[in-house]
Amino acid sequence: MPYIQLKTPIPGPQSQALQARRSAAVTAALGQASPIAAKKAHGSLVEDVDGNTLIDLAGGIGVLAAGHTPQAVVEAIKAQAEDLIHICSIVANHESYVEVCEMLNRLTPGQFPKKTFLASGGAESVENAVKFARRYTGRDGILVFEGAYHGRSNLTMAMTSKWSLFKKGFGPFAPEVYRLPMPNLYRTPKGMTPEEYLEWACWNLDNALIAHIDPSALAAIVIEPVLGEGGFVPVPHKFLRKIREVCDATGAVMIADEIQSGSGRTGKLWAIEHSGVVPDLIISAKSLGAGMPISAVTGRAEIMDSPHVGGQGSTYGGNPLASVAAIEALKYLSRPEVLAKAATVERVVREVFEPLQKEIPAIGDVRGIGAMMAVEFVKDPQTKEPWPEFVLEAIKAASANGVILIRAGLYTNCIRFLPALEIPEDMLREGLEVVAAAIRSTHKALAVGA
Questions:
Q1: Distance (Å, rounded) from C-alpha 338 to C-alpha 106?
Q2: pLDDT at residue number 400
Q3: How many whole angstroms separate alpha carbon 301 and alpha carbon 113?
Q4: Residue 280: which residues within 8 A CB-CB, separation 6 or more?
Q5: Is residue 307 helix, strand or coil?
Q6: Which residues lie closer than 8 Å to 217 by C-beta, 6 or more apart?
């Protein structure tokens, strides 16, 4: 029996009714990728309010590496809710806050003393990491990269690359943020080899310390080891090593934003571990809490201790409910047999879409690491002109047939896959075949007028 069970068209009448209520009550500025209204979910299956069962390949935008409602997390939240829901770490201590920090100090890369600070969301922790770096170095400047997504607060919007979706109409933005190209090897400039492009990007990083900012003013370089919103582009290891070299030479802090790529998503607990590069600070969130709002900055103790007492704080950061969820999530996601499942996800995604790439020229690239995979769509495989309209139509078709998906990419021309690490292989294949069929039908419909 297939996992997808559709009792009504998607969206069904109850989903449509709730959507009408949302339209009347909720700001129109809030986007929505899927037309369904969820009622309950477990593992990788979601039941909507109409009784339809769908396969979730979006994972709450990377939050659900452990799947929906993992039993250990649910039981920990229930037990904690009976004892202590909130106290605020500024007011009093509680054990689960300390335990999360101890676990992150132990599990993040680097053989040096570490400390951790907890917050509620990814953008908050990006800001906190910048504050730690600025206080430690006594400098202001922050280097970031094209394609980056770091959040929706004022500072993190300044750090984020994609203007039209995240920044339009919201400026002016925070100063002292400098942006450089990140070598996306799929889009190697014409006339250059990928190796030459990578060499140029490394040279440009050195050049930026003359053209954009002096080393004496540089507080930190912030990089996603795998671009998230930017289209699941793995950062070349050589470029990560270059960033480490520049930080070592200038005294700047190297910050790895692992909000989406961390917590086991790529088959290692932190994506930067694939490169062997050790950052000074790591930012984690999303799957860290298995669906509960928690984020963290973890890193060198001397950096984390540099602000004055009271200089950092978060009313809800490390909330007892979120902390116990993170403890159970980390216990689960750090198990070698669970991390190994990410390779299965990557293998199956490639087995479905790499052959399809030969059939559908609109598939420009199939890339990613582990359970963080994307397919990029282009109008022409030679010019690589982005085709965002194709992605929108393909996602609509897949949603109508029972698969929850979301887009990605600087040009919004990618379908991203963020399934639970332990999604059963036959369930994953069923979901991906629905997506493949949607791609075929979309290509047939759009290619006529292309």
A1: 18
A2: 97
A3: 6
A4: 133, 247, 253, 254, 255, 299, 300, 303
A5: coil
A6: 139, 140, 141
> Residue 203 corresponds to which tokens in the numbers above?
């040279």
Contact 270, 262 (CB under 8 A): yes
Q: What is the pLDDT of residue 448?
A: 59
- Domains of the chain, earliest start first: 13-62+340-447 (3.90.1150.10), 71-336 (3.40.640.10)
Q: Which two tokens stand for residue 37?
A: 């209204």
Residue 380's nearest CA partner among 432, 447, 334 is 447
CA distances from 5 to 10, 34, 42 (A): 11, 17, 15
> Angle CA(262)–CA(267)–CA(269) in degrees, nearest 5?
40
Residue 241 has which token pair? 């090593």
Helix or strand holding residue 328 (H, E): helix 320-333
Residue in the structure block whose two tokens are 């890339």: 367
| β partners of residue 5 | 53
Q: What share of the chain is helix, strand, coil (3-state, %, to 5)?
A: 45, 15, 40
Closest CA to 146 of 183, 175, 181: 181
**H or E, element range at 128:** helix 122-137
Coil, strand or helix at 269: coil
In this structure, are residues 408 and 374 in contact, taking their beta carbons and an 8 Å threshold?
Answer: yes
Structure-token pair, residue 26: 């909720």
Residue ranges for the chain with pLDDT beneath 50: none
The answer to whether residues 311 and 151 touch, using CB atoms and an 8 Å cutoff, is no
C-beta separation of 11 from 35 below 8 A: yes
* Identity of the amino acid at 442: T
pLDDT digits (tens, 9 = 90+) for 432-442: 999 999 999 99
Backbone phi and psi for residue 208, each to the nearest 5 degrees, phi listed first = -60, -25
Largest CA distance in the chain: 65
- pLDDT (tens digit per residue) in 388-414: 999 999 999 999 999 999 999 999 999
Give the length of the chain.
Answer: 450
According to DSSP, the β-strands at 53-56 and 403-404 are parallel
Look at the pTM and tell me if it is higher than 0.85: yes
CB of 104 within 8 A of CB of 304? no
| DSSP code at position 309 | T
Specify the residue for token string 């006529």: 448
Q: How many CB atoms lie within 10 A of CB 424?
A: 13
